[in-house]
């Protein structure tokens, strides 16, 4: 096939899995973050593909270097939503022919250790106290050379939870395909995947990339951790507050809901995330239903199937149910 018979319909490239650890010292009190960053770009780059013209290519190695440079100099490094916005706006202001930036940050957990005979969390020692990650996705598009529109979503992945009662599944369709028995009490386990989307934002294009600023609204008042106090709470500039409330809401609802189904519990979680965060437009949960099947011991005369007598289960790794939904603010 000759090249005249094909056309390049989309092109995007960059660096994936940029591993980055940052310590920020305030005297002897340290803050740390560990991120896996993906930085991808789009723009007037077609000739790199179609003409083998590297004159338009910002090397993926350079994108990695920019990520580390901003990790060193940015005031926003401790908050992944803001760091992603800073990284993306920096790239779009630096390279005229690059029009879009896609920044994804996976943040690994590091929580402060509380030493047993001290009351306060330790100033510089941390523990990986969970496999769940905070996921941030920022898409930035340069409009007319003076403004950038930003879409920010964030959430959680791999938050593994289980409850040993408070979950039923009854009243579902019974037909020739049905073998599942109705249960008033079962084990409910899932690995929470949550994504919430903030209202779109508009950022003036930084005229000088060296200024290293991207217009955090001046009226906002931040607490020590970077959470917003007062006006702006629950919006994108309050990303840490939103993240904390979303995780707490997810765990609270999971633990306390008398679950009629994964679907019904999912909806309650999403409702609470939207109710508690004014700047969140929609919430998507993907919840695998990790089945735990009571072992049938009838053959040795032992009842392990009656829900109140079911004590030994087989955790089934596959298949699992997969329940998802997006709930939006009206
Ligand atoms: O909460 C549940 N929702 C379902 O749709 C379903 N289907 C199923 O087999 N078990 C369950 N559990």
Automatic annotation (TrEMBL):
<dbReference type="GO" id="GO:0004846">
    <property type="term" value="F:urate oxidase activity"/>
</dbReference>
<comment type="pathway">
    <text>Purine metabolism; urate degradation; (S)-allantoin from urate: step 1/3.</text>
</comment>
<feature type="binding site">
    <location>
        <position position="263"/>
    </location>
    <ligand>
        <name>5-hydroxyisourate</name>
    </ligand>
</feature>
<feature type="active site" description="Charge relay system">
    <location>
        <position position="291"/>
    </location>
</feature>
<dbReference type="InterPro" id="IPR002042">
    <property type="entry name" value="Uricase"/>
</dbReference>
<feature type="active site" description="Charge relay system">
    <location>
        <position position="60"/>
    </location>
</feature>
<feature type="binding site">
    <location>
        <position position="60"/>
    </location>
    <ligand>
        <name>O2</name>
    </ligand>
</feature>
<comment type="similarity">
    <text>Belongs to the uricase family.</text>
</comment>
<feature type="binding site">
    <location>
        <position position="169"/>
    </location>
    <ligand>
        <name>5-hydroxyisourate</name>
    </ligand>
</feature>
<feature type="binding site">
    <location>
        <position position="289"/>
    </location>
    <ligand>
        <name>5-hydroxyisourate</name>
    </ligand>
</feature>
<dbReference type="Pfam" id="PF01014">
    <property type="entry name" value="Uricase"/>
</dbReference>
<feature type="binding site">
    <location>
        <position position="60"/>
    </location>
    <ligand>
        <name>urate</name>
    </ligand>
</feature>
<feature type="binding site">
    <location>
        <position position="60"/>
    </location>
    <ligand>
        <name>5-hydroxyisourate</name>
    </ligand>
</feature>
<feature type="binding site">
    <location>
        <position position="289"/>
    </location>
    <ligand>
        <name>O2</name>
    </ligand>
</feature>
<feature type="binding site">
    <location>
        <position position="186"/>
    </location>
    <ligand>
        <name>urate</name>
    </ligand>
</feature>
<keyword id="KW-0576">Peroxisome</keyword>
<feature type="binding site">
    <location>
        <position position="262"/>
    </location>
    <ligand>
        <name>urate</name>
    </ligand>
</feature>
<protein>
    <recommendedName>
        <fullName>Uricase</fullName>
        <ecNumber>1.7.3.3</ecNumber>
    </recommendedName>
</protein>
<dbReference type="GO" id="GO:0006145">
    <property type="term" value="P:purine nucleobase catabolic process"/>
</dbReference>
<comment type="function">
    <text>Catalyzes the oxidation of uric acid to 5-hydroxyisourate, which is further processed to form (S)-allantoin.</text>
</comment>
<feature type="binding site">
    <location>
        <position position="61"/>
    </location>
    <ligand>
        <name>urate</name>
    </ligand>
</feature>
<feature type="active site" description="Charge relay system">
    <location>
        <position position="15"/>
    </location>
</feature>
<feature type="binding site">
    <location>
        <position position="262"/>
    </location>
    <ligand>
        <name>5-hydroxyisourate</name>
    </ligand>
</feature>
<keyword id="KW-0659">Purine metabolism</keyword>
<feature type="binding site">
    <location>
        <position position="169"/>
    </location>
    <ligand>
        <name>urate</name>
    </ligand>
</feature>
<dbReference type="GO" id="GO:0019628">
    <property type="term" value="P:urate catabolic process"/>
</dbReference>
<feature type="binding site">
    <location>
        <position position="289"/>
    </location>
    <ligand>
        <name>urate</name>
    </ligand>
</feature>
<keyword id="KW-0560">Oxidoreductase</keyword>
<feature type="binding site">
    <location>
        <position position="263"/>
    </location>
    <ligand>
        <name>urate</name>
    </ligand>
</feature>
<feature type="binding site">
    <location>
        <position position="61"/>
    </location>
    <ligand>
        <name>5-hydroxyisourate</name>
    </ligand>
</feature>
<feature type="binding site">
    <location>
        <position position="186"/>
    </location>
    <ligand>
        <name>5-hydroxyisourate</name>
    </ligand>
</feature>
<dbReference type="GO" id="GO:0005777">
    <property type="term" value="C:peroxisome"/>
</dbReference>
<dbReference type="InterPro" id="IPR019842">
    <property type="entry name" value="Uricase_CS"/>
</dbReference>
């Amino acid at each position: 096939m000759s090249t005249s018979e094909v056309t390049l319909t989309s092109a995007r490239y960059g660096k994936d899995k940029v591993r980055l650890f940052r310590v920020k010292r305030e005297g002897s009190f340290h803050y740390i973050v560990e991120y896996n960053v993906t930085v991808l770009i789009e723009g007037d780059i077609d000739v790199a593909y179609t003409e083998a013209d590297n004159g338009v290519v910002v090397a993926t190695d350079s994108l990695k270097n920019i990520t580390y440079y901003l990790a060193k100099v940015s005031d926003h490094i401790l908050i992944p939503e803001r760091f992603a916005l800073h990284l993306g706006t920096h790239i779009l202001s630096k390279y005229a022919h690059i029009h879009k930036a896609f920044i994804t940050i996976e943040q690994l957990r590091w929580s402060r250790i509380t030493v047993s005979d001290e009351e306060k969390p330790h100033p510089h020692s941390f523990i990986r106290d969970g496999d769940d990650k905070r996921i941030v996705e920022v898409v930035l598009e340069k409009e007319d050379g003076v403004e950038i529109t930003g879409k920010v979503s964030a959430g959680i992945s791999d938050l593994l939870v289980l409850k040993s009662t408070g979950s039923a599944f009854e009243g579902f369709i019974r037909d020739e395909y049905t073998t599942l028995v109705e249960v008033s009490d079962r084990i409910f386990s899932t690995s929470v995947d949550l994504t919430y989307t903030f209202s779109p934002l508009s950022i003036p294009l930084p005229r000088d990339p060296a200024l290293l600023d991207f217009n955090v609204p001046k009226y906002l008042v931040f607490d020590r951790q970077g959470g917003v106090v007062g006006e702006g709470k629950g919006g994108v500039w309050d990303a840490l507050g939103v993240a904390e409330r979303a995780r707490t809401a997810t765990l609270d609802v999971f633990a306390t809901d008398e679950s009629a189904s994964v679907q019904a519990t999912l909806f309650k979680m999403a409702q609470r995330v939207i109710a508690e965060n004014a700047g969140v437009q929609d919430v998507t949960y993907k919840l695998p239903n990790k089945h735990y099947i009571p072992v049938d011991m009838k053959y040795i005369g032992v009842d392990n199937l009656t829900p109140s007598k079911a004590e030994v289960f087989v955790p089934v790794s596959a298949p699992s149910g997969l329940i998802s939904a997006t709930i939006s603010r009206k």
